[in-house]
Specification:
Elements (H helix, E strand, L loop, with lengths): L4 E4 L5 H11 L6 H9 L3 E7 L3 E10 L2 E9 L8 H16 L3 E7 L3 H9 L3 E10 L4 E9 L1
Amino acid sequence: MREVRVREAQAEDAAQMAMISGEAMTSAWKADDFLGALSNPQAKVWVAEEKNVLGYCVLYYAADEGEIPSIAVDAGARGCGIGRALMTALVAECRQTGIDRLFLEVRCSNEAAHRLYERFGFLVAGTRRNFYNHPVEDADVMVASL
């Protein structure tokens, strides 16, 4: 596992987060999307970094529920524990602030992501047919009770 620091994201991180999102996803978030999340009082955004941002995670929340609309790790840093570090920070924040259920969608074929989320107690609750484009693929809806 790499030694990374997880911290709350700042506006100056938006371009790096957008670059990672663009490499990782077909429906990538742009820098403006991250800036919107950073200015949203019902959102939290974290980055994992060494010298540069290597990954990020976004949480939207209301009352006692949260949703993870975007999480990604730089392609060159995958498999090194960065996703786990980000999820650890996110779950700790949720427990501290009274969020006790989390939701996310993930490509059905993304086995590495499924394994990561299952480590944090996520279970498949349903499927959204044809949710993703390029290629068209179903999404598993996953939920965790904290």
